[in-house]
Amino acid sequence: KRLIITPTFMKDLNNTHLRMTWHNALMDLQQAKRIIFIGYSFPLADFEFRYTLTKAIAGSNIPRKNKKIRAILYPPDKRIKRKTDDKRLKWERDAQEKRYSDFFSQLNFDIKYMDALEFMQDPDLIWDW
Fold it and tell me: What is the Cα–Cα distance from 125 to 99, expressed in whole angstroms?
């Protein structure tokens, strides 16, 4: 049976397989030294994921300063100029940046605006950024 979990406030996560998946994600996030989001806008409505991240960060045995969290968002900086952006694009970009910055304000966090393929092809960005 197919199942899609959308980033909304109303979710039914009582399925045994879903509970196990969320639990495994929590365990992996607790142990991760680096977390990289690629192309994810971090919507406020994705409450369950935000809650899982909060639990993972609080329950991690890795010191907060050593846990690196990065976000790769589109479009790349080279494709747009802040002053010439259309207002909607600038608003969306600023809103995404604020959601991430507010949530991860106490952690080692950074955002880059670039193409996902470009990011994946640069080992320095993947491992050292």
Answer: 22
